[in-house]
Fold BD-FAE-like domain-containing protein.
Amino acid sequence: MSAARVIPIALVALLGLAACGPTGSDAGVIDPQIDAVGTDLATDPDVTVVADIEYRVVDGVPLLLDACLPPDLDRDSAAVPGILIIHGGSWREGTKDSVGWRAVCTWLAAAGYPAFSLDYRLAPEWVFPAGFTDVQAAVTWLRADEQAERFGVDPERIGVFGGSAGGNLAALLGTSGSGDLSTGPRVAAVVDLSAPIDLTGVDLTDDFAPLQLEYLGCTTFADCPAAEPASPSSHVDESDPPFFVAHSTVEKIPLAQSEHFVEALRAAGIDVEFLVADGTLHSIALLDDDLKSRIVAFFERTLGPG
C-alpha cells in the first residue's frame, strides 16, 4: 500500500468522524518520529519492577511474568485498571523482559497502569493453542482477588497490549468467547500492533509462512485445522471489546491483515481506532511519543485513568 493510498483513506476517516465515525478499513495516518533504534524504548527508572512472578505451572514448569508498578501506586485507594503485555517474536522467540518489552511495561506503569509482561510457551516445542491458553490463564490469574488486592488492580477492567505475534494473541483474547468482558479470560480493551490476524494462509509473505505453519503445527495451510481457531478474525462478534490497531504499510505482516480485521470488527459494531504509518516499522518499533500518547488516551477512554 503506497503513501498515496494512505492519505486519501485518512481524509475519508476524518470526514467519517464528522458524520457517524470511521467505517470499513478507514484509517488515520501516523508518522513515527524515531531518531534511532531504541530512542523511545528507554526503561523508566521510577517504576518498580517485581520480576519472575509465577502465574501458571504446566507439567511442573512454572510460567512467569513481571509486574511493573506505577511510582505513586496506593493499594489502599480505589483500584485501577491493569494491562497485560504480550511480547512478539513469531511465536517462537522473545521474552517478557527484553529491552523493548520491559520498556513497554515501565512506560504503561509510569502512565498509571499496573502492567504485567508475561512469558508463554513457544513453538516449535509448543504449538497452538499452548501459548494462547497461557495468556488466557494470565488474565484469569490477574483477575483473582489475591492479585487484585496485591497490585491494586480492578478485576473488571483488564486491558491487553501486544505486538506482532503477541498482537495476534492479544487480539485473540479480545475476540474469543462472548458476553461479559469482566469475567474469566475476557479483556475489556485491546491494543495490537502489526499483528497477524488471519492465519489461514491469506495475506501472507513467503518468509513468514513457515513460521506461521510451525506455530500452528501444520505442514500446509490446505490441511491445517488449527489455522481458523488461531485467527482472531474467525471469532469476531458484537460483544468484543474496543480495539486500537496500528500497522505500517510495508512490513513483514501485510497491512491487509489489519485492514480486513478492522472491517470485520466495525461491521460487528465494535469501537476501533485504526492508525497506519507509511514505511516498514514493525510492532513496538512504531512507538514514539505521539503513538504512546494515543494508546494511553485509548486506555483512559475504554478502561478509565490509571
Q: What stands out?
A: Confidence is low (pLDDT under 50) at residues 1-19. The longest strand covers residues 48-58. The beta strands are 28-30, 48-58, 61-69, 80-86, 115-118, 153-163, 189-193, 243-248, 272-277.
